[in-house]
Amino acid sequence: MNDATPSMPRPADESSTQTDVTSTAVDRRTALRLAGAGGALAVGASLIGAPAARAATAAAPSGGSPMLLGAPETLGAPPVEGLHLTFGEDPASQMTVSWTSEAPVRDPRVKYGTFEGGFGRSVAAETVTYVDGVSNRTVYVHHARLDGLRPDTFYTYAAMHGGARPDSGTFRTAPRGRRPLTFTSFGDQAVPTTVWQPDGNGGFNVVDAGIGSPAAADIVGGVEQVDPLFHLLNGDLCYANISADRLATWKGFHANNSRSARFRAWMPAAGNHEDEHGNGAIGYSGYQARFALPRNGSTDPETAGLWYSFTAGSVHVIVLQNDDVAYQDGGDNYVHGYSGGAQAAWLEADLRRARAGSDIDWIVVCMHQVLISSADANGADLGLRQVWGPLFDRYGVDLVVCGHEHHYERSLAVRGVVSGTETLTPNPVSDATDSIDTSLGTVHMVLGGGGTSAPSNGKLFAPDKAKVLTGVGPVGSNGKRPPVYVFEETPWSAFRDAEHAYGFAAFTVDPGRHAGDTTRMHVTYYNVGQPDGSITPLESFVLYRKRSDG
């Protein structure tokens, strides 16, 4: 393992995005970031001071600049809240801008454009509602789907509705074809609450935090330091289902993450804590309303958005909803088998298409529950090993990122199972830990240190021991099905972090230089420290494989 401190991962072409507009203007990237961070009105005034910006504004369509407020605010109008982005089916040309309001609004829309090309294009937003099954309150979510965008291009935008002050942000579309890019990932975030307090022994405790902690805020700042193209959020987003006020918890989640999610797509997987009592037949209607996700998964309204895929550059990302196949009774409803095999059939078809083409090199799966874990927490789940495992092997999945276990660990490259094991123990095909050929097998990463106050890094078993949930018992007095566990050895284990509770991973893709070349994915895991939220590289390693166009 390489323990040297690596440099911050950046796309190899990052410098190409820095362009001076004029000798007196701020550079393009800085101006765009200021547009989101500085507020709609103030930034509009600063940009208009530049000659190029004045020309762009003059040339814009009659809708005007999204940076300028065209009418006064209305007293009592619901504000634009929780601004966040998600990719459409094609991240190179589609982005969805979403926000929430606590009451109906008039004329929800997004104005957008490029710094060089002028502002003023406008897209109407679709409003989706759901009634929270506990509080009986209605939530209004507005989704504006931007289409026909240029690949690898920066855009600035403002979300607005009648009577409210606009809220703004920026984003970069994905490149088309083999280009360098960076993405990040973590799971199990919760919401930031109270503060860190010294425990008298050189450490820190969370005071009155419930399931959340200040790390849930710190980790957002960490992601912003890496500045990825997109972020994968591996389930258990905010734990609203176990909160005293579900809607307040969701509101806090969006407010916290909007510091990053207004600048880049945050692509979520639904975990067991997104299953909320009273919210639809299987419990996910709140999650489904809040996130406008690629429409290439289920076409059934009951399960739409629970699984989907997208391609950015040469990286194909598949997002799964694991409660369908996992045995654990971990949500508000026990929904094992809810898709009737539809998700597995979709997954196989999607994997087959991805591996058959010559434009995709990397297949990354984002999901919540895990195939590997050596913690005395939830454990690995046999249902995933039975259903997903053979498909990952058959179609050569390179990387699986998960949450559920609230610590960091990763596997060796694995393929198939250790012969004769009751738990279908993943079979290591290489002992490499620093430079790993993923054409031989899949690397699994547990990235559950997103911010909960219940970390599991202190619950790691002694080496060579793990537990696997192999089924559930009859419903108990608490209304839940108790897990049945079997212990196993851990020949698949490559690395685990017992010292630190919180962190995230960054992945930078080097696509290679010519057909048939080797492509590499440089991986860095960052610890998020307390109480200052500083990020520190813990370890780095490289995944590699031959390009598919060779």
Structure description:
It is a single chain. The chain is α+β, with helices and mostly antiparallel strands and 550 residues long. The chain has helices spanning 28-37, 40-48, 51-59, 215-226, 246-261, 285-290, 342-356, 382-394; strands spanning 81-87, 95-101, 109-114, 118-124, 126-131, 138-146, 154-160, 167-172, 181-186, 196-198, 204-206, 230-233, 265-268, 308-312, 315-319, 362-366, 380-381, 399-402, 408-411, 414-417, 426-428, 435-437, 443-447, 466-472, 483-488, 493-497, 503-510, 518-528, 535-546. A hairpin with a 2-residue loop joins strand 14 and strand 15. The longest helix has 16 residues, at 246-261.
Mean pLDDT across every amino acid position:
88
Q: Structural class of the secondary structure composition?
A: alpha+beta
| Overall spatial form | globular
Number of strands: 29
Number of helices: 8
Distance between the termini: 30 Å
Strand content: 25-35%
Spatial strand order of the main sheet: 13-12-9-27-28-29-22
Uncertain residue segments: 1-64
Q: Report the sheet with the most strands, covering strand number, pairing sense and barrel closure.
A: 7 strands, mixed
> Helicity, in percent?
10-25%
Rg from alpha-carbon coordinates = 23 Å
Quick overview:
The protein is built from eight helices and 29 strands. The protein has helices at 28-37, 40-48, 51-59, 215-226, 246-261, 285-290, 342-356, 382-394; strands spanning 81-87, 95-101, 109-114, 118-124, 126-131, 138-146, 154-160, 167-172, 181-186, 196-198, 204-206, 230-233, 265-268, 308-312, 315-319, 362-366, 380-381, 399-402, 408-411, 414-417, 426-428, 435-437, 443-447, 466-472, 483-488, 493-497, 503-510, 518-528, 535-546.
